[in-house]
Amino acid sequence: MGLIQCKDVCKSFGEKIALDHVSVDIPKGKIFGLLGPNGAGKTTLIRIINRITIPNKGEVLFDGRPITQDDVEKIGYLPEERGLYRKMKVGEQAMYFAQLKGMSSREAAKELKKWFVRFGIESWWNKKVEELSKGMAQKVQFITTVVHKPSLLILDEPFSGFDPVNAQIIREEILRLKEEGATIILSTHNMESVEELCDNIALINKSHVVITGGVDEIRHKYGNNNVELVYTGGELASVMNVFNVLSDQDDAGRHTAVLELLDGKGGNAALSAILAQGVTVNSFKELVPRMNDIFIKLVTEEE
């Protein structure tokens, strides 16, 4: 049973259906990717989990029981629309948010100082938010989201505004928080981050769930039985009923080929047929589609 279970959740705003019988199960201690194009319903579902808005139908369970306001106190929520007070000093604001989440002044100061040191931003404590760049403000808001050690983190486009170096720092922190036991919902358009970070995903499009499951399981499900072969020592030809050579690039005698396995033949049969042609195999691996390609395929099919 997941930490969060959304069961048959429906939500409408007037005539517009935002969520149509959405059910997802978010496992404990995992990173769960919430994917979908703009307007699909992701933010509405996040707001329902946070009890910012109430569904017309269905329920959200937290650890097996209906979610309460006390449970929301255990959630760290980083919304896509950032909300720091520009005229306040960074340290004062961070202290304010930490105490809103139930931390004592002493505890908040101690934990915040740790985070400021970890991110190398100790000198920002007495700066006003309006003095910070977008990326710098993002770091501060990330810290205020995680400082109270929530059991559930909801991160909506957490890499927005970051350069590649700082985006990688945030990725590493997300993985570290997972290792420490946090459950994380990651809403993002960044498919590379989904493959790198997420254990499970749900793709929402046009208000309903299109697919949900493990990332590796979904990528293999949408595979096309192609493999990549790197070889030397000759030139490969297709073998009837075993494989077709779809492409073969020769770089000074080192070939990189894409093969289509035929008639349910597995890798062992293909390798035997390849070696029978007298070439030397350097590598042989399944070509699994990227999440970005699967995302585009599923959303386009829905259209």
Q: Could you describe the 3D structure shown?
A:
There is one protein chain. The protein contains ten helices and 14 strands. Strands 6-7-8-3-9-10 form a six-stranded mixed beta sheet, sandwiched between helices. Strands 2-1-4-5 form a four-stranded antiparallel beta sheet, covered by helices on one side. Helix 3 crosses helix 4 (105-118) and helix 3 (90-100) runs parallel beside helix 5. The chain starts with a strand and ends with a helix. The protein is 33% helix and 30% strand. The protein folds into two domains: 4-220, P-loop containing nucleotide triphosphate hydrolases (Rossmann fold, 3-Layer(aba) Sandwich); 224-287, no CATH class. The protein is globular, with a radius of gyration of 24 Å. The protein is α/β, with parallel strands linked by helices and 303 residues long.
What's the layout of helices and strands?
Blueprint: E1 4-13, E2 16-26, E3 31-35, H1 42-49, E4 57-62, E5 65-66, H2 69-72, E6 75-78, H3 90-100, H4 105-118, H5 134-146, E7 152-156, H6 164-179, E8 183-187, H7 191-197, E9 200-205, E10 208-214, H8 215-221, E11 226-232, E12 243-251, E13 254-261, H9 267-275, E14 280-286, H10 291-302
Parallel strand pairs: 3-8, 3-9, 6-7, 7-8
Antiparallel strand pairs: 1-2, 1-4, 4-5, 9-10, 11-13, 11-14, 12-13
